[in-house]
Design brief:
There is one protein chain. The protein has about 425 residues and is α/β, with parallel strands linked by helices. It folds into two domains: about 180 residues, 2-enoyl-CoA Hydratase, Chain A, domain 1, CATH 3.90.226.30; about 230 residues, LarA, N-terminal domain (Rossmann fold), CATH 3.40.50. The protein contains 15 helices and 20 strands. The strands form six sheets. Strands 3-19-15-16-17-18 form a six-stranded parallel beta sheet, sandwiched between helices. Strands 6-5-4-9-12-13 form a six-stranded mixed beta sheet, with helices on both faces. Strands 1-2 form a two-stranded antiparallel sheet. Strand 12 and strand 13 form a beta hairpin. Helix 7 runs antiparallel to helix 8, helix 11 crosses helix 13 and helix 12 runs antiparallel to helix 13. It is globular, with a radius of gyration of 22 Å. The two termini are about 30 Å apart.
């Protein structure tokens, strides 16, 4: 029987060895966006979850700050922000008392041209001179407290001294925080570098720090603490497809609306498995560009038994963005050694210009190489570069399957044709 992976613009077919037992090959078809995203935004804002409407939260005389994510996210803030401005105006708050802050976290700081591209001409012109990009290294970031576990929370000055904070972002499956969105617009969005480093590096390898887990996930719970400390009052989160179309919007209390958005996202992307797989065959599609392609490999790691095999197919046609990761993978440090270096603040010079989430990938990939037999099917990286990552290279999927089957002639196998947008959930009881 033929099976397939989505790879680039084509379906690549392959067969499984006779001794391999298929436990899942479910594909997630593309999900269409709404026909009128502005009406979807208005619907969400008109029916907030766990919160009064923006018009009720706002009071004349307030200083309001609007937080929005950066260009690395497809969130249509250019559609949402003008609508939020209009609602604040109706509540008696003029544009002159509103500012916008791009919540880049530890990503590169945007130029004014990039901010205009992200926010759109209307918002940019209405808030001329009052739109800025968060700087995680700024000397005037303000310490506002500590989480209940003791993580220092130091935030953007405008956030610290505003009267009302409203955020706009995206809710999608997240390999560490459970789901993106919600209070992540604050942590890491507008926190200082040292706050983000302390939080991320401390909780990044906890067993509950993983996709589709929120209760008991300390990484997520610390983010909520930071959002509460910052007084984030209202959040608008989008669920967006691979074509950057709006599937649905959720608005309201940052925790309550995010819970609803996360449940909805899980209903779209969850794939149940009856047991851990011995071998997982996964495509990076539809998130095949740059670092996004690594998400599929991370997801495969959640449902493959220790010592098992993962066949990871990703074109890597824009491989330059992951080359610093590849080079660091070649070091002799174990995942644990490298993680301890990060905790101590000893970040390699070649990685200091990158965001903390990127640096974390080195630990995760070293761990994957230590825990699994990973075979990378790619055309964008050379066999030598794949070897630097401590993975095995294969020119095509069938050859990779044949190679792994020589080591594991009998295996339970999971196939994810579109592994970039899935949530694998093993439902086997202990």
């Amino acid at each position: 029987m033929n099976h397939y992976l989505n790879y680039g613009q084509e379906k690549v077919c392959f067969t499984l060895p006779k001794g391999w037992n298929l436990i899942s090959s479910e594909d997630k078809p593309p999900i269409s966006g709404v026909s009128d995203p502005i009406q979807e935004i208005k619907r969400a804002l008109d029916h907030p979850i766990g919160s009064p409407e923006i018009e009720e939260l706002a009071r004349p005389g307030m200083e309001v700050v609007l937080l929005f994510d950066d260009l690395q996210r497809p969130t249509p803030v250019h559609l949402a922000l003008p609508e939020i401005l209009n609602r604040l105006n109706r509540a008696g708050i003029p544009d002159e008392r509103i500012s916008g802050v791009c919540a880049v976290g530890t990503h590169p700081i945007h130029t004014l041209e990039q901010l205009e591209k992200k926010t759109g001409k209307e918002f940019f012109s209405r808030l001329q001179g009052r739109i800025s990009c968060h700087d995680p290294h700024a000397s005037d970031n303000v310490i506002i407290g500590k989480t209940h576990r003791g993580t220092l929370v130091e935030v953007n000055r405008r956030v610290a001294f505003s009267d009302l904070i409203i955020g706009v972002g995206e809710c999608m499956p997240h390999p560490v925080a459970g789901f993106g969105g919600g209070c992540k617009i604050v942590m890491p969005g507008v926190c200082s570098y040292r706050s983000v480093a302390e939080h991320h590096f401390t909780w990044m390898r906890h067993r509950n720090s993983k996709v589709n887990v929120m209760d008991g996930n300390s990484f997520y719970e610390e983010i909520v603490d930071a959002g509460t400390l910052s007084r984030l009052s209202f959040k608008l989160d989008f669920i967006i497809n691979e074509k950057k179309e709006v599937i649905r919007a959720f608005a309201g209390d940052p925790v309550a609306e995010h819970r609803e958005a996360s449940r909805y996202a899980a209903s779209l992307y969850l794939i149940p498995l009856p047991k851990m797989a011995d071998v997982t065959i996964v495509s990076a599609f539809p998130l095949e560009v740059g670092v996004q392609a690594t998400k599929a490999l991370t997801m495969a790691g959640f449902c493959t038994r220790s010592g098992g095999g993962i066949i990871w197919a990703a074109p890597q046609k824009e491989a330059s963005s992951i080359m610093p990761l590849v080079k660091e993978m070649a070091s002799s440090d174990s995942a644990g050694d490298f993680h301890r270096r990060l905790i101590e603040g000893n970040i390699p010079d070649d990685l200091k210009s990158f965001g903390i989430s990127y640096i974390m990938q080195v630990v995760y990939f070293k761990e994957l190489a230590e825990k699994f037999d990973v075979v990378h099917v790619t055309e964008g990286l050379s066999p030598e570069q794949v070897k630097m990552m401590k993975f095995s290279y294969s020119p095509n999927i069938q050859e990779a399957i044949n190679r792994v089957s020589e080591k594991m002639p009998q295996a339970d196998v999971a196939v994810f044709p579109s592994g970039g947008n899935i949530i694998p959930e093993v439902r086997q009881t202990a």
